Amino acid sequence: MKTRITELLGIRHPIIQGGMHYVGFAELAAAVSNAGGLGIITGLTQRTPELLAREIARAREMTDQPIGVNLTFLPTFASPPYPEYIRAIIEGGVTIVETAGRSPQAYMPALKEAGIKVIHKCTSVRHALKAEKIGCDAVSVDGFECGGHPGEDDIPNMILLPRAAEELTIPFVASGGMADARSLVAALALGADGINMGTRFIATREAPVHENVKQAIVAASELDTRLIMRRLTNTERVLANPAVDRIVEIERDKGADLTIDDIHDLVAGVYPKVMIDGDMDAGAWSCGMVAGLIHDVPSCQELIDRIMSEAESLISARLAGMLAH
Ligand SMILES: Cc1cc2nc3c(=O)[nH]c(=O)nc-3n(C[C@H](O)[C@H](O)[C@H](O)COP(=O)(O)O)c2cc1C
Questions:
Q1: Domain range for residue 106?
Q2: Which pick of 4, 154, 221, 243 has the fewest CB atoms within 10 Å?
Q3: Cα-to-centroid distance, 211 and ligand 1 (Å)
Q4: Do 172 and 114 lie in a common domain?
Q5: Domain count, the chain
Q6: Measured in angstroms, how far is the CA atom of residue 8 from the centroid of ligand 1?
Q7: Ligand 1 centroid distance, CA of 147 (Å)
Q8: What is the tens place of the pLDDT at every residue in 186-227?
Q9: Same domain, yes or no, for 233 and 172?
């Protein structure tokens, strides 16, 4: 399958693995890229730019295919040295960066000067248009369904993707709720040039996370995510667990008086405990509604091959077969 995204990124299949905190290590990024998609290392999971440089070098030993690095500009509890992270990316020979959170505008000159292709992940048409205007090469449009931060507009992909297609000139991928060939074909029909998946790629053999995380995703249904931190204008979709129930309760009790300090211990420093130790109730961790569509733990190669072959038969048999002959 050839789309504007496969052409732009030099990949075989229009499938991207979105940056994920404590999931997007070299092992996963390399496995996705070796399977013909675009694997992405999560920059800020590496505590220093030096560690990111090492992670990029590790991925390079595992694949000769293109890989990307995610740079997330979110309200974090400490401000990371972004220019040094960008230097590690450039010196590591990475040519694709996924930005997310705030606008990457301040860093565009450095990224573009180094010949890096920038995919900005955003949750609204207005932010996608801004990304196009400041010179991003593509956008990843994250609908309300997505795991992680869906923004504050609550527009699901059935509306958001065709709206993006109406307005954008640059290529875009559909993100949020994507799991299989049906997702890919639907996304293409709605105007996207490919898909970006988060939650689906956690439940793969190569994702270097505790087995408990993969099994929690397989066990979860589409009803099992919750939205937290709405009142802090930092909404996050997470998998329900007792810690998340507690956050929801605190948020309800505090109402408009809620501050991050009220829930800090339930949302900060949680990822290593969940992803490495498999302590599933340690706090809140991102997960998409798409968990309801995830029933197995395949290898990245099996997953991507399955998506591509089923997409082909969906298009050429099911859809083409519906046309009157
Ligand atoms: C556990 C987890 C951690 C994530 N961490 C990040 C992150 O650090 N930076 C980022 O830009 N997106 C992050 N995301 C969002 C994903 O890159 C992707 O946009 C999202 O998962 C797409 O929705 P889906 O889960 O329905 O596929 C995370 C998602 C998950 C599930």
A1: 4-208
A2: 221
A3: 18
A4: yes
A5: 2
A6: 22
A7: 5
A8: 999 999 999 999 999 999 999 999 999 999 999 999 999 999
A9: no
